[in-house]
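Revision sheet: structure tokens.
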Amino acid sequence: MSTMDPPTPPGRMAPTNPQGPVTTRRPFSLRDKIGYMFGDFGNDFTFLLQSSFFLIFYTNVMGISAAHVGTLLFAARILDAFTDVGAGRLIDTLKPGRSGRFKPWLLRIMIPVAASAFLMFSPFLQDGSYGVRLGWMILTYILWGSVFYTLINIPYGSMASVISNKAGERASLSVFRSLGATLANLGISVILPLIVFVQIDGNSEISGNRMMFAALGCGILAIACYLLCFTNVEERIETAPKPKSERMGFVQTMGTLVTNRALTGLIFSSLFMLIAFMMMGGMMPYLFNEYFNNGQLLSAVNFVGLLPTLLLVPFAAKLAKKLGKKEVGVVGMLIGVAAGLVLFVLRTDSPVVFMIGYAVLMFGVACLNILIWAFITDAIDFQEVRTGERNDATVYATYSWARKLGQAIAGGLTGWALGWIGYESVAGGTEQSQGVLDGIYSLSTLVPAGLLLVSVLALAFWYPLSKKRVDENVATLEAKHAAEGVQD
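Predicted:
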């Protein structure tokens, strides 16, 4: 099926294969959901490794200025505006492989993305000149993030649109994808701090050699997860590209996306949510290593922060079906804003009290984040209602770039803000002033709460797809498909 062909109605398989005879596909099942979960498990073994430890590794092990790290994280996202959208457009137009349009990319890129993550956390040049260390950081980060991670994440995320075109099955894929990310987060943020942080002369420090071997282990596990995803997921919807002369042009396609309020509203809301989420993730090592003076407590707070997601997994799809995804997200995010403000006002010295408030804050974030991938399929449906085309990979790539931009802004903001409050970046660590410690606490509570407030306002007042509107779009597409007379 091309981007210009009439789409297959929900619950129906593509009637013909332009490349050959019809292939019998097994029915959608739990196997697909578990397989898709492992795909994000694999992604997050390197993504969360980078987002959780990249900044502190390069400031405290490699001795790079926090401002320079932050600038790289931001500048690389400008490059990703081209690589992400370019990858999406490439995948939308290339001829599918024997196993489908998106699955082959898992096998092509899984080893390069794991290897580049290992190099990114290798302290081989720790004793080199500042310019050499800075160049190594830039080279390995761009190689991992802008090239290989892009080339595996874009097809993986787009794959949901061809595994099934039933709304309920797609929602379950979103929940299982979020579960995969959460399980990976448990491994990265709960177990790794116990390995990579060490106590030296009463001070908590991060070990460069331990970080390197942790990255090697994460890379091997990522490859195993990608193989499990490839083996268990089935692409059921044919998406053979149309000839170039019959496709909507790139500029025209991007123009329709810019005016898609569902997509722009989702991007704006999730952008600020992600900045808050990633900034908290980036600040937690500093908060517990410096403010609470115990980096190993990072394992406990990260586990507490992930519990709400694990608790929501069995109920998220049911809540979304009954109340609506937008409605669940708005209420949850308001709870998160309130928790962040309470933590800021308390300014507690107790890690236990902080963890309790942090768990409530992360519950609010999880209410939106666990369903976010189902929001995208609604935006794709909205695009079809408006224009008659879906452009799945291009839509997903545009959203993916926005997420990366959020990650970059969070990394850049974290690095710059550490510089603004006077944080000293010295290899081996150094004692920080009380003013710096207070600044770290504020960056971990007040700033994320403000960002989440912007996110919830965008979701409530700009994103148009309430439960009622989503149901109307589903009915419109069913009527459209019936009128087109697509046969099973």
